[in-house]
Design goal:
This protein is of the alpha+beta class and about 210 residues long. It is built from 6 helices and 10 strands; from the N terminus they run αββααββαβββαβαββ. It has one domain: Alpha-Beta Plaits (2-Layer Sandwich). The chain has a 7-stranded mixed β-sheet with strand order 3-4-2-5-8-10-9, sandwiched between helices. The chain has a 3-stranded antiparallel β-sheet with strand order 1-6-7. A hairpin with a 4-residue loop joins strand 3 and strand 4. Helix 3 crosses helix 4.
């Protein structure tokens, strides 16, 4: 006769003897706890990137470099709150954000660059950033976003110069009534077999005059 160990701290039921109902209940609990993948929906994606961020710790010291990143984050977060944007994730020297409205994303990008221009007038150590945008239907999983739209927005950001906003052609098409865009032609972006048409989004006040 096989005896069951019922000493304190040990269960009298081993996993192999759980009933089918118990396993079903456990499976339901696990499924509920797992973050659900949300289907594609139209969103505008924005990336910010601090120019020459890799050199800042060696040039300025870790403490100052960290403070500059914090200043960047504060200005971007303020603009996101104003323009109904959502931070998707922090990238160390930049932020990825998403918007339900493409127009709001463009307005946010302009607001961010204008904020840094004002910040730099009084700052002993200026911060210069680049911004890239694209729109489409990325897939959401665990509050993160994936897909070609996200990758393209990231690559467009990398292609931008200091203090510049670059957008993909899909952004330009959805802002057809906005004249403050300049065609920059086609750029070869890593991961994309064909060159991608990009536009510079003007954000300075004199550019609209």
């Amino acid at each position: 006769m096989k005896l069951t160990d019922t000493s304190p701290g040990k269960s009298s039921m081993c996993p192999s003897r759980l009933s089918r109902h118990s396993w079903a209940a456990l499976a339901i609990l696990c499924q509920q706890a797992r973050p659900r993948m949300v289907g594609p929906a139209h969103r505008a994606i924005m990336f910010t990137d601090i120019v020459e961020s890799m050199e800042m710790p060696a040039r300025l010291g870790d403490a100052v470099a960290t403070e500059l990143v914090r200043a960047h984050d504060a200005l971007v977060h303020r603009a996101l709150a104003r323009c109904d944007g959502r931070e998707v994730k922090h990238l160390g020297d930049g932020i990825m954000a998403a918007f339900d409205s493409t127009l709001a994303a463009v307005e946010c990008a302009r607001t961010i660059q204008q904020s840094f221009e004002r910040y730099n007038r009084a700052a002993s150590e200026p911060i210069h950033i680049r911004i890239g945008l694209d729109c489409g239907e990325p897939v959401e999983d665990s509050r993160d976003l994936f897909g070609a739209t996200v990758q393209r927005a990231s690559r467009v950001c990398s292609a931008a110069n200091s203090d510049q906003i670059l957008v993909a052609s899909s952004i330009r098409m959805e802002c057809a009534e906005d004249a403050r865009f300049v065609d920059c032609g086609y750029k070869s972006l890593k991961g994309f077999p064909q060159p991608v048409q990009v536009f510079q989004c003007e954000w300075r006040a004199e550019a609209s005059g």
